[in-house]
TrEMBL record:
GO molecular function: thiosulfate-cyanide sulfurtransferase activity
Protein's UniProt name: Sulfurtransferase
InterPro entries attached to this UniProt entry: Rhodanese-like_dom, Rhodanese-like_dom_sf, Thiosulphate_STrfase_CS, TST/MPST-like
Organism encoding this protein: Actinomadura syzygii
Record Pfam families: Rhodanese
Domain Rhodanese: from-to ranges: 34-151, 184-290
Top-rank taxon, per record: Bacteria
Assigned keywords, A-Z: Repeat, Transferase
Length: 294
């Protein structure tokens, strides 16, 4: 399998450096009321929808800094996909401007279901920062709990974050194809895109042969919060994904697949991310394409 780094130890799943990947709104509110230093990143983003900055300006967690998923957390779109990895220097600069330092506790959030927040969680960990958590349920959970919001952009003291890439496993097209036969490759897109019945974004419909469909919508409840670990383990086990096998995930452009990686992490299953995902796969006409349910 072509990966940049080995799969992490299953015993490490669920937390890194003693930091659980999720935090609930009441727990975050308590930290902020105690004036515990926390870097808050608002990464609301809508595929094909209004820019996330518009949501941020209407209201955000007090002290939160807006991070643009398209511009700040991904490199320019091209053969590598629609959301390829950013250059380490570029990502380092963005995180420093947002106030992230080497010892910072970072909490990221989006509207509700953690789709875009998970990509930032994954990216920070990939570039060497483990003290990062996702606000489970996002902005919706925060406001529904009655916690305060703000429309003021904070003044941020620049941080000293240093990007050290390669700290999480990634796949390229060759590695994804190999994993689809030798391990378990999960396709995190909606079922109709997986089957090739609908493709609203990329020029070709279908999926990587051998991949198994696991839409990220199945990782969360109607409130946008992640399912309990035992239910996630059961869900992934039904798809053949356990900590006894090499597991990877892809989607359209590596965003919702990061959400799948987070859900697998919560279930105790280490997994690699195919960052280029389908938008990279279809750039090579020699790559095979499957349709239907298998």
């Amino acid at each position: 399998m072509n990966q940049e780094s080995p799969l992490p130890n299953p015993g490490d799943a669920g937390q890194t450096d003693g930091v659980h990947p999720l935090i609930e709104a009441p727990a975050l509110d308590r930290l902020l009321r105690r004036q515990t230093p926390v870097v808050l990143l608002d990464v609301r983003w809508h595929l094909g929808g209004p820019p996330g900055i518009e949501s941020y300006r209407k209201g955000h967690l007090p002290g939160a800094v807006f991070v643009d998923l398209d511009q700040d957390v991904a490199g320019p779109p091209g053969p590598g996909g629609r959301h390829p990895l950013p250059h380490p220097v570029a990502f380092e600069s963005v995180m420093r401007r947002a106030g992230v330092s080497g010892d910072s506790l970072v909490v990221v959030y989006d509207d509700a279901d953690s789709t875009s927040a998970a990509r930032v969680w994954w990216s920070l960990r990939y570039f060497g920062h483990d003290r990062v958590r996702v606000l489970d349920g996002g902005y919706r959970a925060w406001t529904e709990a009655g916690h305060p919001v703000s429309t003021t952009e904070p003044e941020v003291k620049p941080g000293d974050f240093v990007a050290s890439p390669g700290r999480l496993p990634v796949l390229d097209a060759e590695g994804a194809a190999e994993l689809a036969t030798a391990g378990v490759l999960l396709d995190a897109r909606a079922a109709e895109r997986y089957r090739g019945e609908l493709e609203p974004v990329d020029p070709v419909a279908g999926h990587i042969p051998g991949a198994r469909n696991a839409p990220t919508s199945g990782n969360v409840g109607v409130d946008g919060r992640f399912l309990p670990p035992e239910l996630l383990r059961e869900r992934f086990a039904q798809l053949g994904a356990t900590d006894a096998l090499d597991v990877g995930a892809y989607c359209g452009s590596g965003v919702t697949a990061a959400h799948e990686i987070l859900a697998l992490n919560l279930a105790g299953i280490p997994a690699a991310l195919y960052v280029g995902s389908w938008s990279n796969w279809v750039t090579d006409p020699s790559n095979p394409i499957a349709t239907g349910d298998c």
